[in-house]
User: Fold these one by one.
Assistant:
Number 1:
Amino acid sequence: MKYGYFDDPNREYVITTPETPLPWINYLGNDGFYGLISNTAGGYDFYRDAKLRRITRFRYNNVPNDFGGRMYYIKDGDTVWSPAFLPAGTALDSYECRHGMGYTTFTSVKNSVEAKLTAFVPLGDSCELNMLDLVNNSGETKELTVFSCIEWCLWNAVDDANNYQRNLSIGELEVIGSTIYHKTEYRERRNHYAFFTVNTDVAGFDTDRDTFLGARRFWNDPVVVENGKSGDSVASGWYPIASHSIKVKLAPGEKKSFIFQLGYVEVDRDKKWESKGVINKAPAKALIEKYNSEAACDKAFADLAAYWSNLLSIYHLESGNDKLNRMVNIWHQYQCMVTFNMSRSASYWETGTGRGMGFRDSCQDLLGFMHLVPDRARARIIDIASIQFENGSTYHQYQPLTKRGNADIGGGFNDDPLWLVACTCAYIRETGDFTILDHPTPFNNVEGSEKPLLEHLRRSVNFTINNKGPHGLPLIGRADWNDCLNLNCFSYEPGESFQTFGPSEGPVAESVFIAGMFVKYGLEYADLCDHIGLADEAATIRNEVNNVKTATEQFGWDGEWFVRAYDANGNKVGSDECEEGKIFIEPQGFCTMAGIGQEKGYGRKALDSVKKYLVNDYGVEILAPCYTTYHVELGEISSYPPGYKENGAIFTHNNPWVSVAATVIGDGDMAFDIYKRSCPAFLEDVSEIHRTEPYVYSQMIAGRSAPRYGEAKNSFLTGTAAWAFVDISQAILGITPTLDGLSVKPCLPADLDDYTVTRRYRGCEYHIHVLKDPAKKGLYVDGTATEGNLIPINDASEIEVEYYI
Ligand code: GLC
Ligand code: GLC
């Protein structure tokens, strides 16, 4: 069952009912000012950091969970309705929500009035625009009253939800004409404020929530709306909001449009005030002025569309498979932008008050993002490397606003450092920008500790070399990629964090997964060294890689698949010897990608075992059989009921590893099959089972052991976005940036043998046609048969490429 459909020419998903199984959301904003918006216009806005600069409020664990956000009420006689269905919740005569690239529109009709609400954040400015068009399609004149409402959050989202004894006394606002300024805490240390305005005269306003709602009422029937008249309240403390009311008279057939703007402004400290107690409104007025006409907003909207057209033309596929085309050309890349912007910080499942930016998460998000905006990728790599410690280990997370490592969680996740190597090498392969390696980059943000970025990569690689366990395999530390495999934790008390409890420097527990990573990324580092004239270092590293490879073949192979780890007692995890958790997905993918045991056929065997034990209808499960009891020596993984999360769900992030691994052993059918199983557009028809958005990946899909098999959770912010795009665009379709140029080396399923990829790469536009013709087999560059798979870097502005299979 579906709740909408894809509109590919417009790059939209069209939701045709407000009653989706869960809120289906979208993101507004590209760089700085962001909004989350659901298909009923719920969600919230923030500037840079959803914890420290929260502009509008979100009520956690709310019932329903999606009240709030952009609230609009249209009062038409005795009927009150909302263009996005909520908050009024009145049944609509028609409803449609279109989630597009950085915008969302709602079109709905009630009693012959059509409302179209368009929400987006214009490029380069810190505001969200809501354009509301009203058309009277009835034969009579309509006299409507439109109410707007947003609820201010008192900036720090955690404090906002915690510190009532203070916060209910500090709310302050100014109301000037149609603009409501939110200036709580501005009198003291804040040099930013927000405002909500509309480009017309208002009949009234409210800034005090209780005046607006009335005693013991809910957002669906505020007393002010019921009465058709604002209270003109000015909040002092309590719960500040911003609401306008507008009288709208529409003749039959007449249309009127209004522009609401929610803006965020920072002011120099010495220019904070216009006069005593009166905030400096100059920057706000400039923004208000800029977007006060329909023409200006239409232009900003068109600019946003053009921005996305340009980004999405960097990698563009034409194939006979519509689902594949829409994922590759639109939704994979869109989700990569979102994960780059948000890491795992703010979604409907990540509160925005928690983790901030993750080290390993952000490094992996970059893998799917590099080609879109390389400058931002570069800056992010430096930010991430700046939280690394001198010994090569690193903080696990940082807060986007402060960019300082998060001391609450600390470090000790021993896969982290290698992801920095992965993303930096990928950045250079994309851009050819070796200068990033010279960039002076601090350790732990300590001024004066700067070393060229190359030194950070070196310490990352050496961290693994210097931290190996009894079998010569890398020590796992607090956890590797699997945050829930906590082999040094041993927690018996509820509430203890599995990630931070216990001795992190366990000297015994080893990770075969990190071994796979080290082989893969150690070799990439060695290649990089060769390229910049460090042949000796390259040789040393290759030698170390060999040692780990040998150790893995010796101690990390279980007979039919790769072992997952050794626990703190030296026992195998993910082995046939185990009663539960006999096989894990991660090392099958990574060790095969890394080519470990290739000559011995380990990769083929490992992937056959994956098929046999882990593949289900919707993807590949993370392990089998699931843990049915708590294992103190394994940690959080065994805390989840079977089939959920890291205990046997499809943890989608690692599915592309298996798919890429299949291409490494030349199995295009398996690669594409695995790709399709968890790919959102391919699951659209079972949306009533899958339940999350059919246009983006979710972090997990419940596995066969779970009562709700097939149900997805934690949509949008997952490393799957980047890895799935790498998988399909590079490994399967075969268009891969290398240090020396673009490589064309598809690994295809039987049913995909005729497609064209347009790829802009290092200043040249490549038109790559992949066709079936065994007589011609191989690569032709501008008509000339070419040995191998590489198109060397060149000065051409366009190149025609044929690749015959
Ligand atoms: C979450 C984390 C990610 C981790 C994964 C597996 O998605 O964000 O860092 O690798 O879980 O535990
Ligand atoms: C929990 C989650 C895991 C996530 C981690 C982040 O362990 O199960 O997916 O990565 O929290 O701290």
Number 2:
Amino acid sequence: MEFISNCTAGAISKAAKALKDGHLVAFPTETVYGLGADATNENAVSQVYAVKGRPTDHPLIVHISSINQISKWAIDIPDYAIKLARDFWPGPMTLILKRSDLAKDFITGGQVNVGLRIPNHPLAIALLAEFESLGGHGVAAPSANRFGAVSPTSAESVSQELGEFLNGDDLILDGGNSEIGVESTIIDCTRSAPQILRPGAVTLEMIQKTIGIDIGFDLNQSTIKAPGMLINHYSPKAKVSLDTIAKPGEGFIAMSEHSTPEGAIRLANPKNIEEYAHILYKALRESDKLGIQNIVVIIPKGSGLAEAIRDRLLRASNSNKL
Ligand code: TXA
Ligand code: MG
């Protein structure tokens, strides 16, 4: 594996060519880092599953560089999905649409729908555009972590997480820390109204404003499966407890207005909800590095991005109880 810290135009074309040749390229996005492969190359995609240790019936999001590419991958696209795409792409939103023939079972986990996203990061967009200029159609990219673990928000985290599983010709592109820090909002667009499958930085309020109707927030309403949404995802090695009192030697994550219990190790001190999302995964990784066994997290209140953070924290804490 080669780690490229200075991503010049030359590095981008090398990475696009590597993808076209069937190798893997981990790249930055504004949400988290992705582990990319040519979404039409079955061998390359199977490598992604192997490197992640992920079951093959868990579908991958196809990343594209522009809105014109939607119709390559999806059919019967509802008007509200076009509105969402116009308002929030490039950005932290994945649309689940009825698939075209290009989206094979090895991308969709055998489902009849495909997930699409245009990420909002200059390196990602440059890479996707260059890949398309070489004849590529889209880059399948799950978060660049081992199955069930915390998503990486920096290139160093990708290297620590997956370095030993990548091959000699695979690349990691360094584009700094992911701005948002939690994964994209996933929206089921296969029915008459959109349904949120995974909360993220594109919030319920933003979606409702764009489409002009009230859709409500109920993760259980959709009939579509997003198999990655297991109850025990996003977990560090440490046990995560929510809204309890941290004991001496335990890790502690909370908004800055909460003071650190005596003897606890403060892992994050965010001043607002954006900062909370931005540093959460880094703080969870840091605790593993420090060998901390227990982390207490005070969950943020409110709607919007707080919803996404609560969702991930519940999953992180659940896994310890299974
Ligand atoms: O922010 C993100 O979305 C990041 C960056 C790299 O783009 N990607 C990401 O991918 O989080 P992943 O694979 O770690 O999580 C994607 C989720 C999984 O839960 C998967 O089941 C769901 O999206 N998904 C993907 N395609 C789907 C489909 N066709 N139908 C239902 N769920 C789908
Ligand atoms: Mg993931």
